[in-house]
Design brief:
mainly alpha; three-stranded antiparallel β-sheet
Length: 266
């Protein structure tokens, strides 16, 4: 527990320092060495993610089982979002987007510390849950990226770019990042559905049917969009609409399940 707490605290500090450097880059966009600032942001982010992994690894496994609760689930969402963003930044110079991700990660890396309540799960079911959380995390980032791209494109057309909009990657890079997030999330969602079919006895059971139905609908929407993107060249606001609707279906897969369980309980 001491290692987890210490690592989480250091990770939070590093995330905040990376966020501070990004804020400086946005405020002084025209008067800084962009490449030098980018390297500084990357270094703090690498430190933060490494320490976050150490901390998270202490809270996800106990007594031969995966253990899940609200705190370490959020921590995993932030960790994956930060790691994928940094991975894509190596090719696309997208570190400015960390201003939305890193502060969230700074908070959530601390949440599991001292959070004693959890649900133990065997390896098979736990692996399915991990993959599912990973898919929902990355596709959530893709949806946020789509929304940000949409705002940036409209501001660009109206010639009303704020300091933040100007500091963001160019529209072409923003669109490319959105597609890459969708592709990574789609692969993870595919594995989540396949693993669910293998490891859960009846994925269409009464308490799971809503979740399964909306997750499959979401998968189909993402699939249609990716086929349309690579075959028909769908992009821009079309890509935004598909990403948003697909993620709404994914959110409904959880909301629908909770509503169904509440009705059954009555």
């Amino acid at each position: 527990m001491l290692i987890s707490a210490f690592s989480a605290l250091l990770a939070s500090v590093c995330y905040l320092l990376a966020s501070r450097k990004i804020a400086d880059k946005i405020r002084h966009y025209d008067n800084i060495d962009a490449e030098k600032q980018r390297q500084t942001i990357q270094r703090w982010a690498y430190f933060a993610i490494g320490l976050h992994i150490v901390s998270f690894s202490q809270t996800i496994w106990k007594d031969g089982n995966f253990v899940f609760n609200f705190a370490n689930s959020l921590s995993m969402v932030a960790l994956l979002s930060s790691a994928v963003l940094l991975m894509l930044d190596r090719r696309n110079s997208s570190e400015t987007l960390g201003i939305f991700v890193f502060p969230f990660a700074a908070l959530t890396t601390l949440l599991p510390v001292g959070f004693d309540q959890y649900v133990p799960m065997p390896l098979e079911i736990g692996s399915h849950v991990l993959i599912s959380i990973a898919a929902y995390s990355i596709l959530g980032v893709a949806a946020a990226q789509a929304l940000l791209y949409s705002v940036q494109e409209r501001r660009f057309r109206q010639r009303k770019l704020s300091a933040l909009m100007r500091a963001l990657p160019p529209l072409q890079v923003m669109e490319s990042l959105m597609i890459q997030f969708v592709m990574i999330g789609f692969v993870l969602l595919t594995f989540a559905l396949v693993s669910g079919a293998f490891f859960i006895e009846d994925i269409f059971a009464q308490h799971l049917v809503h979740k399964t139905f909306f997750a499959i609908v979401s998968w189909l929407v993402y699939f249609v969009f990716l086929v349309g993107h690579f075959k028909q060249g769908w992009r821009g606001q079309t890509a935004v609409r598909f990403s948003m609707w697909a993620y709404i279906m994914l959110i409904l897969s959880f909301i629908g399940t909770e509503i169904a369980l509440a009705l059954i309980a009555r």
